[in-house]
TrEMBL record:
SUPFAM superfamilies linked: IHF-like DNA-binding proteins
GO molecular function: DNA binding; structural constituent of chromatin
UniProt entry keywords in alphabetical sequence: DNA condensation, DNA-binding
The organism of origin for this protein: Copranaerobaculum intestinale
Domain of life: Bacteria
Pfam families assigned: Bac_DNA_binding
UniProt lineage: Bacteria, Bacillati, Bacillota, Erysipelotrichia, Erysipelotrichales
GO terms (BP aspect): chromosome condensation
Family membership: Belongs to the bacterial histone-like protein family.
Membrane-crossing residue ranges in chain numbering: none
Keyword DNA-binding carried by entry: yes
Name of the protein in its database record: HU family DNA-binding protein
Length: 94
């Protein structure tokens, strides 16, 4: 089954399992995402036992080539969010 679980569907599932309103479940889902985002923004890591770890990864400055002109260019250093799944999640997906 190729189902996509988006924010709305996640909130609906949470409301059904907890017997609460969709509005309250949506607030809970949004709060979780906001806290994860804020922690990563502040340079922290998020470790959810049995699910995985979120962290910000540093990408160093590097040399690249402009494919249109074949000129060498410098690609600036950047930060990107990363996710490393826990063993339990890997095993569940197998």
């Amino acid at each position: 089954m190729n189902e996509i679980l988006n924010r709305k569907a996640l909130a609906e599932a949470l409301a059904e399992k907890l017997g609460t309103t969709k509005k309250d479940a949506t607030i809970a889902v949004d709060t979780v995402f906001e806290e994860i985002t804020a922690t990563l923004h502040d340079g922290g890591k998020v470790d959810i036992s049995g699910f995985g770890k979120f962290e910000v990864k540093q990408r160093p400055e590097r040399q690249g080539i402009n494919p249109a002109t074949k000129e060498k260019i410098t690609i600036a250093a950047s930060k990107a969010p990363g996710f490393k799944p826990a063993k339990a999640l890997k095993d569940a997906v197998k």
